[in-house]
Amino acid sequence: MNDFLSFRNAAVADVDAIVALVESAYRGDSSRQGWTTEANMLDGQRTDAADVARLIAHEHSRVLLLTRGSGELRACAHIERQGEACYFGMFSVNPNEQGGGIGRAMLAEGERIARDEWQCREMQMTVISIRDELIAWYERRGYRRTGIYKPFPYGDARFGLPKRDDLRFELLGKVLL
Q1: Which among 45, 41, 31 is positioned nearest to 167, based on CA atoms?
Q2: Which domain holds residue 81?
Q3: 146 close to 173: Cβ distance less than 8 angstroms
Q4: What is the pLDDT of residues 94-112, one digit of tens each?
Q5: What is the CATH number of the domain that holds 31?
Q6: pLDDT tens per residue, range 101-140
Q7: Total number of domains in the chain
Q8: What's 114's DSSP letter?
Q9: Are 22 and 46 in contact (CB under 8 A)?
């Protein structure tokens, strides 16, 4: 088996595969195979084709794909230049391959692009604040909790259907330069 990892930028032709990967990593029974599942907190969708296509087309953003061997999509992330900071989101790894280093490789590549190609000083992301295990994973990679919170968009089905009433996002950041 060829284990060669390869990064590339997403194209419109990749939209359906990206949506399927993101949904499999965060929602439904398939997501429970990995540790990044949000299935115990949220039902409904995590993203849709229109949103992914918009991110691909946005001038200051990139949807980064990681493939293994034959070119099958294994991970994705959205990075967006926002002045001196870069936002990192829609980070998804195939649930069957979580814990094998693919996520670390994807995060490192996103940071490299932000730092070396876009000259961003910081990488930022938002994480659901009750995701202690996920936040700890980011902290081990140099991210710090900022104490800045954003409300969860209750009532907007585009972000999922909450099963809890205590969801909010916390901003994490890492200095790159």
Answers
A1: 41
A2: 5-175
A3: yes
A4: 998 899 999 999 999 999 9
A5: 3.40.630.30
A6: 999 999 999 999 999 999 999 999 999 999 999 999 999 9
A7: 1
A8: I
A9: yes
